[in-house]
Design a protein that fits this description.
This protein is α/β, with parallel strands linked by helices. The protein has 11 helices and 8 strands. It is globular, with a radius of gyration of 17 Å.
């Protein structure tokens, strides 16, 4: 049975979608069958892999409210071994529609049960909020990756997110663990970036991934081409960093890198 990892932080602009797309593509590059779920109404993971959210027929929204099966919502991508369940703006309405449903926090988990054993990894791109959709994602996940940008307000809101995780662990998903804290948008030239790296490592120690994601123009460019960085420029620092992150996660989970 595959491992489900949520990429979450209620703070916007920390690299959640960039991480979701490029980590999923990197895991697929090592020939692990991977499913990316776009659980953000902004649908940036969907467009970042070359799909027009306005033309999506079945999305994670339809899966969660019972209008479509997960199997009918999965789309293959240009990356071998990588599929996606897309999103669109209607996902905003899912929170309203689900509010009176029984077990409303478990709709994502229930929807994914039928495909979980078909993938080695399921990566979920969460919205920058702690609303019902994100709670659904964390309830369905085995672990969570928390991206933290190497900037002044790096730790802002992180305590609130960790408290939310504790609540979900105690009430909805006792097996949820923190896969790791991922430092993103690192600029070697800036003293502030190095200060943030030191501060996060001193606070969270072994919870922090060894891999640090740099600021990289190829990472910024690739969504406009509808491909992950590994297809846009495989030799770029951004693409290599996410391949290293994938290796770290693969080894951490006791698996072997195939190539």
């Amino acid at each position: 049975m595959g491992k489900t990892i949520a990429i979450a932080n209620q703070k916007g602009g920390v690299g959640k979608t960039t991480t979701a797309i490029n980590l999923a593509a990197s895991l697929a590059a090592f020939e692990f069958k991977t499913l990316l779920i776009d659980a953000d109404p902004q649908a940036n993971s969907t467009s970042g892999l070359g799909f027009n959210p306005k033309e999506v027929k079945n999305s994670i929204y339809e899966c969660m409210v019972g209008l479509s099966s997960v199997q009918d919502s999965i789309l293959p991508t240009e990356v071998p071994f990588l599929d996606i369940i897309p999103s669109h703006i209607d996902l905003v309405g899912a929170e309203i529609e689900m509010i009176n449903l029984n077990n409303r926090e478990r709709k994502m988990k229930e929807a994914l049960e039928v495909v979980k054993d078909q993938y080695d990894f399921i990566i979920m791109d969460c919205s920058p909020s702690l609303g019902l959709i994100t709670i659904n994602s964390l309830t369905a996940a085995d672990s969570i990756i928390i991206p933290v940008q190497c900037e002044y307000y790096a730790l802002e809101g992180l305590g609130k997110l960790l408290n939310t995780i504790k609540i979900i662990q105690s009430r909805l998903n006792t097996s949820l663990v923190i896969e790791g804290i991922l430092l993103t948008m690192y600029d070697l030239r800036l003293r502030l970036s190095n200060q943030v790296v030191n501060e996060v490592n001193s606070h969270f120690k072994n919870m922090v991934f060894e891999t640090i994601i740099p600021r990289n123009i190829r990472l910024s460019e690739s969504p406009s081409f509808g491909v992950p960085a590994i297809l846009h420029d495989a030799d770029s620092k951004g693409a290599i960093s996410y391949l290293n992150l994938a290796k770290e996660i693969i080894r951490k989970n006791g698996l072997l890198v195939t190539i």
